[in-house]
Amino acid sequence: MRSWIILLIIATSLMNHALAASFHLAIVTASNAEESNRGRSFAGIQTRVERPVRRAVELALFESKTSFEAFGIVPELQVVDIDAKRSLKDQLKAIHSNALIILDLPKPEFVETAKLLDERGQTTVNVRHPDIDLRDMLCLPSLYHTIPSERMYFDALGQFLIYRGWRKVLVVHGPTDKDRLRTQILERSLKKFGANISDFREFTLSHHPDDRDKNKPEFLTGDASYDVVAVIDSAKDFGRYIQYSTRRARPVVGDVGLTPVGWHRTLERYGAPQLNERYQSFDEENSLPASEAMSDEEFAAWSAVKLITNSLGTIDAISETLDPREILAHPDTQVDLYKGTRGSIRRWNNQLRQPILLATGDAVVAVAPMPKFLHPKHYVDTLGLDEPESRCNLK
Amino acid sequence: MGKHLHTVNFNRKIIVSMVLIIVSIGGPRAVAFEALVTNERSGDVIHVDEDGRTNHVVPICNRPRGMVRGLVDSHVIIACSDDHKVITYNRATRTIESEISPVRGAMNIAIHNASSRLFVTNEGAARASVFNLSSGQLIAELPTGLEPDGIAITDDGKTLFVASENAGLVHVFDGSNYEQQGVIKTNLRPRRITLFKKELWVSSEMGSRVEIFDIETRAKRDEVIFAPKGFRPEQMTPVDIAFNDLANEAYIALGSANHIAIVDITTRKITKYILVGRRAWGLGLSPDKQTLIVLNGLSDDFTLIDLQTKRPYLTKRAGLIPHSIKVFE
Fold first, then answer.
1. What backbone phi and psi angles, to 5 degrees, belong to B307?
2. Do B168 and A342 touch (CB under 8 A)?
3. Among residues B193, B187, B188, B170, which one has the least CA distance to residue B252?
4. Which chain B residue has the Cα nearest residue A70?
5. What average pLDDT does the structure give for chain A?
6. Model pTM?
7. Do B165 and A271 touch (CB under 8 A)?
8. Which of A81, A271, A291, B284 has its CA 20 to 30 A from that of B260?
9. How many CB atoms lie within 10 A of CB B203?
């Protein structure tokens, strides 16, 4: 087992404060279990950002330095890199019982680890998987999700299409199980807001002439009437070639073109430029170029830590143990997400509620919820699995 | 926002403006004033009169933001964030009199007249700095939380308050030896801090409230939470606060909620919400306290409100992203 503890060195000037508590934080990774092509498509072309979330966790701790000093708190970050050859249970025992545990794991390892830690009553955070089954079916009381769910992403897209008056949608999707499943979720979102689906078209990666109806964007998008093309291509293999090649001159949205995201490097408002700048430069030895963006997964990990540290200020009484169970269960727990509306926790499925950005490669075109999509209770609850439709009911 | 959307909003605005014009017929004739507005994106200062006319547009620096009255009535002090300097601008001659540089990421400003000191928040540097306003000499640098914004000094010059947006803290410093005396916990994203009599009012932009603290004990006395009709509480993003002691009213710009709130200073009750432009944040009060001027950061305009009738009567174009306003006789 490779596990170690890093005591973050916090400036020595701890104020003479009654509280002298530790904030325990752990990241669980499985570097050997990761797919070798992290974020790369065919021929090694980088099409997605997939990297460990640790930088974002350290950024969140760096940001909280002043508060930690003011309140006499010492953060302790522990990283556990799971070795598949050894007992998972044993390796998880090294994690402090009061730690907020960020699971930076592929899905099979994620589910196994989350269950084991739930049995031990420990608090875990999903920062990587938007999958609906983790909310609706797994539904663990100790598991929080700071990465948006697929429904949140697609609901944001659905609202945007309706807002623009693009009601007729041609859906083009990939052949994998994941693509088909995500296409169903997209369909639910589009129907929720009243869009019409002109047709579903499945693409293939084959270049064989017999498959041309499924491999040429012009044919894939032909013989249909539509305002917009929505593309589901989880691997980003083929979808990238659909823009500018559709039969009709129509915009492309979904996994390519205008994409719903949790975070973006070009958000201009709400203090976001400062967060992006900090992400790139806070680590003096490993600063990043300005084009280097914080991924949705990293933003989710950052949000998880900030949920705790922001709450140090907004919750009146926090016991000295800084127990994440207590803090996350508190009704006043909230977080400044630099997206214009604060984040808080949906009690029915432990999902972090948050605005979703609709972005191209170099601009945030809109921030959902879109105007006039109103919810009776909470401004952003038009995005995602609302209480009545959630199969998970943790409250 | 796309082009089409913009047209929709524009049309709506025309309708709103038409309503406002009708209201303004036979409306108030404000006592003459001169308002100065910093526009952070167009990099200028505009001189506006009581009829909402822009009489002068003066290019001034890159990203002018915080602005306060100078030591003499013809001067304002302006923070030029992207030039990392603070300038003294003469509104009579419309020229820059002097500048203090470097002042890294200068964001908001307070001055203490009696001791001729300038206090500036350094946004990217997580600190506030103190200068001698006459000599431009740096006196002290004070560590704060990340993204310091609002800054205020008590009239007696003894206590300095600095709000850090990221940290959710107001740092309290001794105004003489600059030692940190403690911190005040605030709700999410404290922006502006305003001293009124024995109280410190802090707008919490992401906490959607204004918190009121006792200056002496620093204990929280009260908070004001906003709820205009048709909005959810989390949509309120308050920024600027202005006090009108004559009417015992505080005015609070509610940011993305596109309203301002009028609050009774004593009872803390919200007596009225007034619809203005998009992302209302900067506030200025006319010298006779009959007119409130609201800067709308996202619609690049400002709205004049008659404080007798509590009605907005005029909305006019500003520069790009109007930030701060000061109003003179």
1. -80, -10
2. no
3. B193
4. B183
5. 91
6. 0.90
7. yes
8. A271
9. 32
Residue B113 clears pLDDT 90, i.e. is over it: yes
Using the Cβ of A70 and the Cβ atoms of chain B, whether some distance falls under 8 Å is answered with yes
Contact A336 B188 (CB under 8 A): yes
The per-residue pLDDT for range A205-252, each reduced to its tens digit, is 988 889 999 999 999 999 999 999 999 999 998 999 999 999 999 999
Which residue spans of chain B are classified as CATH 2.130.10.10? 30-59+230-329, 64-185
Q: Is the ipTM of this complex over 0.90?
A: no
If you write DSSP's letter for every residue of A33-99 in order, what string do you get? TS-TTTTB-GGG-B-S----SHHHHHHHHHHTHHHHHHHTEEEEEEEEE--TTS-HHHHHTTS-TT-
Of A64, A278, A310, the CB nearest to B188: A310
Q: CATH top-level class for B30-59+230-329?
A: mainly beta
Range in B20-24, B287-291, B299-303 with the lowest mean pLDDT: B20-24
In this predicted structure, the answer to whether residue A8 has a pLDDT above a threshold of 90 is: no
Q: Please tell me if residue A67 touches chain B, with a CB cutoff of 8 Å.
A: yes
Cβ within 8 Å, pair B167-A64: yes
Cβ <8 Å between B188 and A342: yes
**B interface test, pick of A308, A341, A379 with most B CB neighbours within 10 Å:** A341
Name the E strands within B226-321. 241-244, 249-253, 259-264, 270-275, 280-285, 291-296, 301-306, 311-317
**pLDDT tens digits, B67-112:** 999 999 999 999 999 999 999 999 999 999 999 999 999 999 999 9
Q: What is the pLDDT, as a whole number, of residue A50?
A: 83
